[in-house]
Structure prediction request, 152 residues.
Amino acid sequence: MRKILYLSAAQRFGDFALLLMRVFVGLFLIWGVWDNITDPARMREFVEFLRQHHFASPGVLAPLSVYAQFLVGIAFVLGLFTRWAGILCVVNFAVAIAMVDRFGGMRGVFPSGCLVFIGLYLATHGAGRLSLDAAMKANDAPRGNTGVRLKK
Prediction:
């Protein structure tokens, strides 16, 4: 009865679910900035957007943000340097919330907030067994008794 109540059998799909989340979020990040990378006019629009929201040095920060999101997306998809990518994701979207999204209320904050928490999760838990990090033994760092342990 306990197994049914707590759905403990679902745990065996955890690595696959984590892979799906990483790939979905990673592809979303890549898709979201691809037009800025491939079309200089779109990058100029983004620079102007940052200028309108009173960012310092929008000409520097726009490409920095775009390429950071692009690299984070690639890292999430591959599960490579995932903890660092998670930290970059948190910083990038926390800035987006602080400078722009907070003015839209909860609905405005929610998309960036999700990316902050997904980045935080991946920064603290890693990419899981189905990743290049796992293949390179990056997840083998010793852990305390708290948190999720990856199966070996």
Remarks:
- The chain has a mean pLDDT of 93.
- Residues 12-135 form one domain.
- The first helix runs from residue 2 to 6.
- DSSP finds seven helices and no strands in the chain.
